Amino acid sequence: MNAQNLPGQRGDHGEVIDTRRGMFGAGDGGDTSGYGGLVRSVRMPGATSRPYGGWFDEVADELEGALEEQGLVPENVIEKTVVDRGELTFHIEREYLPVVARTLRDDPALRFELCTGVSGVHFPGDKGRELHAVYHLRSITHNRLIRLEVSAPDADPHVPSIVAVYPTNDWHEREAYDFFGLVFDGHPALTRIMMPDDWQGFPQRKDYPLGGIPVEYKGAQIPAPDQRRSYT
Fold first, then answer.
1. pLDDT for 29-47, tens place per residue?
2. At 61, phi and psi to the nearest 5?
3. What per-residue confidence (pLDDT) applies to 4?
4. pTM for this predicted structure
């Protein structure tokens, strides 16, 4: 198998944001995977140079042209464009996210009518942009799929809501808020949907305590995950 097809393996390319030890990178408990001695770098793919290939260049050209028509400088709006593993991702400065989303939806040459949701991602080692929001957009007209990505620091986890552009994102933004603490400004009713309203912290952040409670099973006590034995 080609190493470039393995998750997270990019050789010496891309931007190093962290060093992971063990299989899952857990640092507050024992590594029971048997891979406690594994050490590897965590890399984010860098910006891709043109030509991107296929229809990617057409979409990039149309988007940049549509932004210029609105009096915006594309370089100020699009932080970088990445082609990785056959996927096209535009990294957008967060304040311009609603404008870009509306442009991608409404421009006749683009017509990304559907947003299939937003996923939160937490990179504690990506200093100053620890929280990422990733949007998958599909053009039914042109049968194309792209991604938008914005980032925010832990200290200021605010991202503009795009529910006004893609109403189906309503519950997806609530879920990302509930689990990652991303605050979507302008959302019509941003509330927790899985965790209790008074829950402290955001369970899918990578620095969230593993914790747990002991479980009794047929008379035996199974300790909480962070108290179990280590094989390292």
1. 566 667 778 888 878 888 9
2. -65, -45
3. 47
4. 0.81
Residues forming a β-bridge with 121: 132
**So what's the pLDDT on residue 103?**
98
3-state SS record for the chain = CCHHHCCCCCCCCCEEEEEEECCCCCCCCCCCCCCCCCEEEEEECCCCCCCCCCCHHHHHHHHHHHHHHCCCCHHHHEEEEEEECCEEEEEECHHHHHHHHHHHHHCCCCCCCEEEEEEEEECCCCCCCCEEEEEEEEECCCCEEEEEEEEECCCCCEEECCCCCCHHHHHHHHHHHHHHCCEEECCCCCCCCCCCCCCCCCCCCCCCCCCCCCEEECCEEECCHHHCCCCC
Contacts of 108 (CB under 8 A, 6+ apart): none
Nearest to 121 by CA among 187, 44, 35: 44
Work out the number of other CB atoms within 10 angstroms of the CB of residue 208. 15
Q: What is the pLDDT of residues 72-109, one digit of tens each?
A: 999 999 999 999 989 999 999 999 999 999 999 999 99
| Mean pLDDT across 150-178 | 97
Q: Are strands 78-84 and 87-92 parallel, antiparallel or unpaired?
A: antiparallel
- Residue at 62: amino acid letter: E
Range in 10-24, 110-124, 190-204 with the lowest mean pLDDT: 10-24
